[in-house]
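Schema walk-through. Below, the input block comes first and the output block second. Nothing else is stored per chain. Lengths vary across the set, and this one has 413 residues.
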Amino acid sequence: MKIENNAIRPTLHVIGISHKRADATIRGGFSLSPNNKRNILLQGKSMGIKNLLVNSTCNRTEIYGLVSNSAPLFELLCNNSKGSYQTLQKYGYVLENGEAINHIFKVGAGLDSQILGDFEIISQLKISAKLSKKHNVYGPYMNRLIDCVIQTSKRIKNETGLSTGATSVSFASVQYILKTVKSVKKKNILLFGTGKIGRNTCENLIKHTKNEHITLINRTREKADKLAYKFKLNVKNYSQLQEEIAKADILIVATGAQNPTIDRQLIIGKKKLLILDLSIPKNVNDDVKNLANVTLTHLDELSEITDVTLQKRKQFIPKAESIIQEEKIDFESWSEYRKYAPTIKALKEKLKLFVDTEIINEYKKDNNLNISQVNSISSNVAQKITNHFAHSLKDDSIPSEKSLELINKIFQL
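--- output ---
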């Protein structure tokens, strides 16, 4: 039995682009539609990648894979998005092994979010995991990794105050409106897009502005109707978008379209209009800035708003990092064992072969041999030898790579 050379064993790699180095326009080029994500998983599977996860949000697009090098992940992302290889090299990042593991734990903990402590990423990771599982690229490694990240996130929520207070992109947008617009309660607000961000923004609008002049529009009216029924709001058809923009004082755009849905041609009124674009890629064309009556703000600007809540959250960063370290050690221990499990299994099978051969030879010499008893004793001895080797591999004072190489050589595995 040939055991894979440890030197070429696949390790966790992540390639991505995020709010830290790339603005909304650049990130938008790498934004992935549901169909793009599915294609990446299927193409990755055809390449032989058994552990693959894709996550694309307003803040980041990332691909995690258990691979020998990052080249296949670059190929998958660039072939299935509008972004170029050169742009990804310039503004993106490539992490592997320990750095990649540390990164996904920080992402899941909300420490790498555009707004500190925003745990929306965990639900997004769960959705990504479901998709990987559906397409059979959610192997044991990725399964264990995401489970540990989710467990870490739960602990941080329960044991620290990192997620206390209302702070998110949707909350920040409403706070921006409250600080920027006078008499918000009397203004006409149009919310275009009733996906997750749209729904959250709507709830924050109702809670913090007490405004009763909110109108919803969504390409699929059924979704808007459900939200309107819950909060007793007005709903208009998508075909009435231009007409409703003309009436609005504030337009909030939170659609999931891959191309701009709002441009200057849609804005026919002359009244002052504040537009908040909460979408990635941007769903409001920059040409609206040429209109004297329009003020356009994107979510990247909203995310820069710092308030008392965020300042309070910062004090819990050390505790959150400590929890990450604890959980990460457990995962890395499991991963280390996984690395030499094939060798231990092969050793066990080799020892069994020795035992079976010797029992057969002895039985030929003595037909009265108690095979059952001999087999039991021999198996116990073989198991003890296997356990001894397993424990020696766990000894931190001895490099496991050298031990694996020696075992493979001695037993010709």
